[in-house]
Amino acid sequence: MRPYWHNLFRRLQGGQGAGPPPGPVVRAGAAVASRLYGLGARGRRALYARGWLTARRLPAPVVSVGNLTVGGAGKTPVVACLARLWQDRGKRVAILSRGYGGGTQSVTCISDGQNTYKKPPEVGEEPYWLARVLPGVAVYTGACRYAAGMAAWEEFKPDLFLLDDGFQHFQLHRDLDLVLLDAASPFGNHQLLPRGPLREPLTALAAAQGLILTRFDPERHQAQLATIHRAFPDKTVLTASIAPVRATAYPGGRAEAPAALRHQALMAFAGLARPEVFAATLQELRVDLKGFRIFPDHHAYSQEELASLTEAARAMGAEALVTTGKDWARLGERWDGEVTLWVLEVEARLAEPERVLKLLDRSRQG
């Protein structure tokens, strides 16, 4: 049933390749559900804002990296970028993640900065990916991020906590709230869940100290940047690019520059909140894309599905498959298929990283 609901959600938003929009009855039902959802979201934030419910503090500063929309804004690569930013300044960094997609709700140490202890499907692919690409950074998961933070504090003594996907996690005090907005479509269709992608009304951005426009292209997104500045004149607005940095072929693990994929006949597959972003990246790399199989976000692939992908690639005349770093983590970083699998990795780069450092200092002084 999960693929059905995933596809219906994308159709409600007009997602590319999702099919025709739902009928008026479904749209009306989704609109009613969105209004009820909005009441709950406003009420929950108000309970903490007015002090009726209180947030707990960790022993070190907490920087939250969150979304106003569900998925697709590049949160995981931005978290990695910020972890490197503080790490380069001599800070010990611990990342706290909900660990969505993993098999456990309890506090779990995925990495202590030196060793990686857990892999998907036992833990979610996003925190595992962060542990893999960030040597020296501790990564802990748990439904209670305070408990995860205290475990990290006892074992790692970080100078700074990065709260992954933390804008709606009110139970934990944050010294700095950074909210990511996709530069091409900051608010989707401007509708709350389930009618649209918004987790909270736009008024919730009043609680953030900084906004980061991700996947920002200076030649294409100046109008969106100006709109955000006008709408939120009191906010620090930053920009970040997210670009492919490496393509690795499996089996074998041969790493190449992303340009190695140019003009190759490939079939893509991915389980992402916004698979169209991956498709656009492949098009920009001038891949000869023969087909694209879309799976639900955080999808756990079966052996039957992987065999089907290989057969489909051959039938479409593709010489290899291509997927994302997150999907590679979900595959257990193992590929035994009869065709080559390319894994495309991306990185985020902040245009003005020093402004983030100043934001944290200003927030703590305030």
Give a description of the structure.
The protein is α/β, with parallel strands linked by helices. The protein has three domains: 2-49; 62-242 and 349-365, 3-Layer(aba) Sandwich (Rossmann fold); 243-346, Rossmann fold. Helices cover 34% and strands 23% of the residues. It contains ten helices and 13 strands. It has helices spanning 2-12, 24-49, 75-87, 125-133, 145-156, 222-231, 275-284, 303-315, 325-330, 353-365; strands at residues 62-67, 93-97, 108-112, 138-141, 160-164, 176-182, 210-214, 236-250, 254-256, 265-271, 288-295, 320-324, 340-350. Strands 1, 2, 3, 4, 5, 6, 7, 8, 9, 10, 11, 12 and 13 form a 13-stranded mixed beta sheet that branches. β8 (236-250) and β9 (254-256) form a beta hairpin. α3 (75-87) packs parallel to α4 (125-133). The longest helix is centred in the N-terminal third of the chain and has 26 residues, at 24-49. It is globular, with a radius of gyration of 20 Å. The relative contact order is 0.14. The model has no long low-confidence stretch (mean pLDDT 93).
